[in-house]
Write a structure and sequence with these properties.
61% of the residues lie in helices and 8% in strands. The chain is mainly α and 274 residues long. Strands 1-2 form a two-stranded antiparallel sheet. Strands 3-4 form a two-stranded antiparallel ribbon. β3 and β4 form a beta hairpin. The longest helix is centred in the C-terminal third of the chain and has 41 residues.
Amino acid sequence: MAKGSTYMRGLCIVLNVLLAIFGVILLLFGIVANSDKAASLEELTQGVILSVGFGLATILLSILGMYGAYKEQVLPLLLYSVFMAIEFTVLIVLAIIATLAQPKLKREIEQSYSRITSLYNTEAVFQREINKLQQKAQCCGLNDYTDWENAIPQSCFCPPAYQDREDKCIGVPKFHNTEWIRNAHSEPASPEDTEYSVYKMSCVPILTEKVMNYLRILLGILFTLATIEVAAVIAVLLLWYKIHTRTPGTDFSRDNNSRTKVNDHSAVWPDTDG
């Protein structure tokens, strides 16, 4: 095997190993993002499908590329180049569209959360995730605490010795006054009727930023993957060219003294008879 061909083959294998790693990363990212029940929205679900789909396709194509490079077979290398070029084109177009549409996506995500007007009637899994977020981010409800109706959870309550209590907390009347709890625009209760203080900030901005961070991470992985794909396709095409232009009937081997021997099977030997 020619030295240049050997180096190119090694480069192809290394690049496809990197592609396989990024394919696994995309696959795992999609699984992790899909398991986040608090951030489960249509926009994120589309990103999860994109991540899992490109992850699986990249893994399969990288295996094909490694096989073709290791065996130095022309057909697998050509198939790899064609399908990888198609994946790269689709990937880069979708990534650019998603990057340019980020402001619009952010507004749509905010509107999607704002349309959920009752956390009290949502699934228990979603409620648990929102409770964790409220306790960690010091927010209450998607829009405000009235999303919980008359069952405001403990995670909404400001601690008694909370430092920014006046700025970040709001007084809530006793639970028997359910009409005021449901209607945040009515007159506030007097101090003597107030029993609890809850966080004033809504959780929508925090959830929106969480989903946007998922999408930004996904876009970063996709653009990095696209860069490696370009390098891999170029390397595979160069390897294919070296294989295609190799002189027929000539193979390269090494003897025991590590000296290169050229065996030309197409040489014409002189006739020694007579």
